[in-house]
Amino acid sequence: MMPQLLTVRVKRPEGRTIRIWVPLLPVALMLSPFLILAALGAAVACRVYRVRVTQAFGAGWRLFCALPGTRFDVQEGRTAVLVSIR
Amino acid sequence: MNEQRKDILGMLAEGKITPDEAEQLIAALERDQPPAAASSEARPKAKAKYLRLVVDTMENGEPGRVNARVPLQLLRAGVRLAALIPPQALARANAELDKTGVPFDLTQLKPEQLEALVEQLDEVTLEVDQPDAKVRIFCE
């Protein structure tokens, strides 16, 4: 299942907390023209380096779909950053 | 149904004991038996899903903490992607490794071997304790 939501939480030293929720599917749809261009670029790079395009895209998609559950939480003194993918 | 319960029901069917007595005997039998702990012990341990990295540090009196959780599925997908690295890139990586004193041939590393390595990761627990830092790597 592809990731649905990216959550970023930043806690600043003065105690202020910023939370950002990014719904990935709408963002991907919005950026689809750029994503198509990036995919074309990746396909050209695969041809140049003699890598099978379908295999590379398949592996990339599996990597993307394996992202849900990833979580990075870093705290340093009174500053904290959390990145979570669901 | 166990043998003792069968015997009780048999005695009830033969009219040797009354239904009340049969009920009391079955209740006593259930009391004597340990709870179903054995069945939970026999259940295989749940397979690990995530690789966890926890680093606790103390720098200049301020505590720091890194807590990362990576799905093992992501590692498996990464291994498949790594299998697509072109041979010329692997040769360059080998040369760089050799320069740094690590004579390791990446072309000999097969994706199946890496996948087997990831499969066995759930048994791994790595702990490093230092006065100013503590690192724990484990699967859950």
Describe the structure.
The complex is a heterodimer of chains A (86) and B (140). By secondary structure, chain A is an alpha+beta fold. Chain A has helices at residues 24-30, 32-48, 53-65; strands spanning 5-11, 17-23, 71-76, 79-85. Chain A is elongated. The mean pLDDT of chain A is 92. Chain B has helices spanning 3-14, 19-32, 37-42, 72-82, 87-99, 111-119; strands at 50-59, 62-71, 125-130, 133-139. A four-stranded antiparallel sheet of chain B has the order 2-1-4-3. In chain B, helix 1 runs antiparallel to helix 2 and helix 4 (72-82) packs antiparallel against helix 6 (111-119). The longest helix of chain B has 14 residues, at 19-32. The radius of gyration of chain B is 29 Å and the shape is elongated. The two termini of chain B are 37 Å apart. The chains are: A alpha+beta (86), B alpha+beta (140). At the A-B interface, helix 3 and strand 3 of A face strand 2 and helix 4 of B.
Low-confidence stretches of chain A: none
Into which percentage range does the β-strand content of chain A fall? 25-35%
Chain-averaged pLDDT of chain A: 92
The first-to-last residue Cα distance of chain B is: 37 Å
What does the main sheet of chain A amount to? 4 strands, antiparallel
Rg of chain A, nearest Å: 17 Å
- In terms of quaternary structure, the protein is heterodimer
- Rg over CA atoms of chain B: 29 Å
Helical content class of chain A: 40-55%
Which secondary structure elements does this structure contain, and how are they paired or packed?
The complex is a heterodimer of chains A (86) and B (140).
Chain A: E1 5-11, E2 17-23, H1 24-30, H2 32-48, H3 53-65, E3 71-76, E4 79-85
Antiparallel strand pairs in A: 1-2, 1-4, 3-4
Chain B: H1 3-14, H2 19-32, H3 37-42, E1 50-59, E2 62-71, H4 72-82, H5 87-99, H6 111-119, E3 125-130, E4 133-139
Antiparallel strand pairs in B: 1-2, 1-4, 3-4
